[in-house]
Amino acid sequence: MTPLLCLSPKKATATFTEVFHMPRLAYPLIRYRFDDGSQEEHALHPYIPIRISNQSSGNSAKVYALVDTGADECLFGADIAEQLGHDLKGDGVKSSVNIGIEQREISVYKHTFKLELLSPDEKTVVWVSDNIEIDCSESNPPILLGARDFLRYFKWVSTIQAKS
Length: 164
Hints:
Layout: E1 4-9, H1 16-21, E2 25-28, E3 47-53, E4 60-67, E5 75-77, H2 78-83, E6 95-99, E7 105-118, E8 125-128, E9 132-137, E10 144-145, E11 154-159
């Protein structure tokens, strides 16, 4: 069995029958590929295709994002924010300090984006967010999809078959 992340969009007022029949989208878990082209050997991660857009500039980009069940909120790097037309530290941009992995402080700058979840074959938009204020970091981490900004809109299950 291929390891999968299965997502089903939630509907705030869904009946039991509607929830049972909502589409289940199965995304394969993949090995992270580093900038030098090498891959992790053992870990599998839920990277899913999304389109990120800046409604002010009209710019958008199709990317793979890591579904991070341990992240409260989404986190984007400065590179994607600037590619889509945001000035990371521009006048009037709100900033704060968040706590990340290993309790390290990370400076973030808040910018507004719209997210579109693409089907596993990347041909269809299956969910669209409202405009979301997302933390952006100069450190250019992988694009993270967190619980409050993304996962709360889905029922999700991850399947990994144990080695025998």
